[in-house]
Amino acid sequence: MTAVVLFAHGSGSRRHSPSNRFVASVLQRAGLGTLLLDLLTPDDELTRAHVFDIELLAERLAAATRWLGTRPDTAAGSVGYLGAGTGAGAALWAAAELGSTVAAVASRGGRPDLAGPLLAHVRAPTLLIVGGADEMVLELNRRALAQLRCPSELAVVEGATHLFEEPGTLAEAAILACDWFTHHLLPTGP
Fold this sequence. Notes:
Number of strands: 6
Strand content: 15-25%
Helix content: 40-55%
Structural class: alpha/beta
CATH architecture: 3-Layer(aba) Sandwich
Strand order of the largest sheet: 2-1-3-4-5-6
CATH superfamily: Alpha/Beta hydrolase fold, catalytic domain
CATH topology: Rossmann fold
Distance between the termini: 20 Å
């Protein structure tokens, strides 16, 4: 596999969620591998503190990344992270800690601000995708963008709320993420 995108999603959004599976299918059609995993067990989610334990989520995401590095079919490929909700903070935290192991990060309706001071240490090109009608999260993403020192962009999907449930908005977010990852993860042609 040339490139794999690991999904890091927040509470209430699991690997089987229709929106995550839809975005994964868009990435797969573009030739990207995907790994959807739950960073919290069902028991973990019962304790609210675990949901916002960004360091714990990042450690689990980093462990999955290291596991990919041991597999013959993925060891030589590039790795990207797609974070949603609190998973965006975990993706950026893990990207800061793993350095060049992570080649690109994208966030969909996420909370990148939860990576706190580690935002300044992220080196992977980062795309923050936010719904235009999700005003609070949009402001948090603008603040996080200002702290990033890597190549980064903010993409606003007009009319979208936090979960991108409005017609066409999830597809738009998926295409934005797909374009970002294909540009940064896949080898360029001649």
